[in-house]
Amino acid sequence: MNTLLGRLIVYVNTCLKKDVNYTIAQYIIENYVDCENITLKLVCEKCYISRASIIRFCELFGFSSWTSFHQLLTRMKRVKEKQMKDRVSHLVLDDLYQQLKRITNCTGEGVMDGIKRDVKIVVKAIHESKKVFLFGSLYPLSIATSFQTDMAAIGKVIYSDFERNEYQVGLMKEDDLAIIVTVTGRYIIEAKKKFNSICHSPATRMLISCSNQFAGLQSIDYFIHIKAKNQNTIKIYDYFLMAFLDIVYVTYYQQYMGEIEYARA
User: Which of 15, 138, 187, 218 is buried most deeply by CB count within 10 Å?
Assistant: First the structure.
């Protein structure tokens, strides 16, 4: 995740003030797949800002000019694309599934089928959604930053929101997807007002948790239950979430990026 794109995503994720720098960073992330064609003039027009504001933004990230910022952005994009293609082409997906099974320490019949079914649900829901929003506490969403970077690199932006205010909730529409990430369900209790707002939003709603207490909620469209035999549920969840999101990304890439490459050819 050591890329300029990753730095932009971390900045947007943790930026409490939605100022001009936030606007520029968000625009670049949302248009990253076509970043070769992003010009200083275009950013000015799309973000309604001055050239001076863009220069100050570049300086914030350690660059003296838009040219040097843009050159590194496009160069690292080409490197990232090659890395992704090489990794996916040599990857055995079942090895990742076996890793997930070892993490949960569940050996019962149907465990693997259940995990694969969950991955299929998440991948399909992400693909069919115009925008995807992640909600949860800071730490689990920090784990998902690498997933955000990988997905943004292939043109699917994942928005992250760990704040207690309802800024992102108000942006969601009917063709969007809200994914709530919580280990024990504590986030739902502590951010009850925001959770209720998510549940009453027009977006499709998905909950990923180790706790089964919310399985029957009618306001949740998809419930992904992470089962674990180990007593250290939080540690298991952290490892599982990283591996699970990695499989979601790889599966998404294999299913849909191949279609895009074929269309381009």
Answer: 187
